[in-house]
Amino acid sequence: MSKKIAVMADSTCELPNHIIEKYHIKLMPLRVIYKDREYRDGIDITPEQVYAHLHEEIPTTSLPIAEDVLYLFDELVDDGYTDVIVITLTSVLSGTYQLATLLGKAYRGLEVEVVDSKALSMIYGFMVLEGARYAHTGNKALILEKIMYIRNCVKSCYMIDTYACLKKSGRVGKFQGTLADLLKIKLIVSMGREGNLETYTMVRGRERAMRTMTHLLRRQFSHKTYKLAIVNGNAEKDAKAMYEGIKDIGTVNELFMTKLSAVTCVHTGPGIIGYVAYEIKNRFQINS
Questions:
Q1: What whole-number distance in Å separates Cα of residue 49 and Cα of residue 133?
Q2: Cβ atoms of 130 and 122 closer than 8 Å
Q3: pLDDT 10s per residue in the chain (288 long)?
Q4: What residue spans of 46-139 are helical by DSSP H?
């Protein structure tokens, strides 16, 4: 019996809507929670709405609810799928992987394989995209090989512009965060191989931070062919400026300009900008 394989992700993968629709990717919505209400990421609330109310309240976030995940499984069965590969954001920062694993083991009528991306944002989005591009082959081993290739070689770099949301989450101390804001110190982070955010450096001033990221990308990808995503949180002008500064680095095979999800916005605050990229080699040069 031939397999019909779907790819499922959660709302923090930050792929553009036209990509989600083209490849029939199912998304589990994480939740944005305020004191008196809660919303499903990407369904009931947008990043712009989160930013508009940050001065009033910094919300919290939570996992998808089980009913939403099971509903998506049911939809896949109704559409004739036999298997689904569920890719989640890093289990270090969220319990979504554990939730999907638990529900997948208990579900009947669909073979569920859950993959911890050990990443977030478009770092994870690229894994979802390339997995979905291979889904039509019905070859689960090949799909997983593609996902793991990206997980093992992807590079990322993000600049955190303001510390209010990091202070709220406890990832930065209140005193340190307040002082860094006053001194206009920008935190530059990257994704560690085990799914945790790691500090790359700290620099004073946004322009210097942008130059630091550009120099890092040049060091990583000069003379290489690669896929690139420039990600921003309410900083589209700077995202375009970043592209102008790096478009001559190596050969960009495919480019995405994407926005952070509402859930990611809650933890990073406005003004964040960064890049995600990975080198293309041999059989992994698929665009369709």
A1: 32
A2: no
A3: 579 999 999 999 999 999 999 999 999 999 999 999 999 999 999 988 988 888 888 888 999 999 999 999 999 999 999 999 999 999 998 999 999 999 999 999 999 999 999 999 999 999 999 999 999 999 999 999 999 999 999 999 998 876 665 555 555 544 354 444 444 678 888 888 888 888 888 888 889 999 999 999 999 999 999 999 999 988 899 999 999 999 999 999 999 999 988 888 888 778 889 999 999 986 555 555
A4: 47-53, 66-78, 96-106, 121-134
| Residue 41 to residue 29: CA distance in whole angstroms | 5
Nearest to 149 by CA among 164, 137, 134: 134
End-to-end CA distance of the chain: 26
Phi, psi torsion values for 33, nearest 5 degrees: -120, 120
Please give the Cα distance from 67 to 114 (Å, whole number).
17
The SS3 assignment for 60 reads strand
Q: How many residues does the chain have?
A: 288
Q: Do residues 215 and 187 make contact, with C-beta atoms less than 8 angstroms apart?
A: no
Token readout for 12 is 């923090």
Q: State the burial class of residue 25 (Cβ atoms within 10 Å of its Cβ: 0-12, 13-18, 19+).
A: buried
Gap between the Cα atoms of 17 and 46, Å rounded: 13
The two tokens of residue 87 are: 């890719």
Give exposure, 72-101, as e/b (b: 16+ Cβ within 10 Å): bbeebeeeebbbbbbbbbbbbbbebbebbb
Contacts with 119 (C-beta within 8 Å, 6 or more apart), sequence order: 89, 90, 127, 151, 154, 156, 191, 195
Q: Are 92 and 195 in contact (CB under 8 A)?
A: yes
Domains in the chain: ranges and CATH: 5-29+63-152 (3.40.50.10440), 155-284 (3.30.1180.10)
